[in-house]
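Quick one: co-fold with magnesium ion.
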Amino acid sequence: MKSLIHVMVGVIRNDQGQILIALRPKNRHQGGLWEFPGGKVEGDEPPYQALVRELSEELGLLVHEATPLIRIPYHYDDCSVLLDVWDVNRFTGEAKGMEGQEIRWVDLNHLNDYSFPAANVPILSAVRLPTQIAITGDAANKDEFCSKVQLMLERGCRWILLRDHSLSKRDFADVFHSVKPMCDAHKAILQVNTSLSLANELNAQALHLTESRLTELMGRRAFNGQWLSAACHSPDALQLAQSKGCDFVFLSPVKATATHPEQAGIGWHRFHQWVSDVTLPVYALGGVSQLDFQKVREEGGQGVASISAFWPN
Ligand SMILES: Nc1nc2c([nH]c(=O)n2[C@H]2C[C@H](O)[C@@H](COP(=O)(O)OP(=O)(O)OP(=O)(O)O)O2)c(=O)[nH]1
Ligand SMILES: [Mg+2]
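Sure, here it is.
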């Protein structure tokens, strides 16, 4: 196994939510492609310090606070890198191409117009995905269900996962069509947890697969929408989700939950180890809430997914 070159990478957003990218000079490795600014850790330099140094040297920015986003080990033909990507939460200064490189602030929905190195695919997902996914719970009837979804939206949820609650296909479609305009009005993504065929029929933007549906999936292109995720409970399932082209995954249960108290959680140590072996954004699910967000990021995850933390009582 070739040793990995540790590279610190910063995702820098301005007040308009645009992201800073830079053009790699033609004569460098992966030259002519766009990158998120950053560079190699030097000797035994602490990684966070390397991030601060690189963004100062390359852009003239002073970083005050950053949070880990995703780590991507990647083997190019000529070298192997570990992209250690951080969200820059606070910085001062005005970005300039200090090494003569072209830089651009780009809207999130225009990032795909730029060519990045192959290793960057999961970064492009991670920067668009939210920190929280709110999963729907139970309700006495459809009206109550819709009111609860409305409340979640008003409380700021911007990614809602609609569970099928053992509904018939027709009832699920009915609930979907009621909830979709509510989500659109809040610019929230509505993801469905249902069969591939129904998700395609509904023209859903995002689909979540159970582990058994993941096993049956032929490949990423079978789903027509933008986002495909899968529920994973083991390292094998994580690898399967990655090999089948899922854009992100849920790993559960991290902790024991009220609904499944007999099932021990995998715990943070295994969460960290298993996440290290995939290059996908991973949501922690099972007994976690917004309060665990920092911990999730420290352990390599993207964010938290939960029913109880978001579904109104
Ligand atoms: N900074 C950055 N590097 C990336 C990205 N994607 C990607 O594959 N890489 C690779 C390209 C390089 O092999 C390596 C980064 O090295 P670099 O050339 O930026 O390193 P550096 O700033 O320390 O420059 P130098 O001192 O080696 O000249 O990581 C990305 O988005 N940002
Ligand atoms: Mg660099």
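If it helps, The chain has two domains: 5-123, 132-306.
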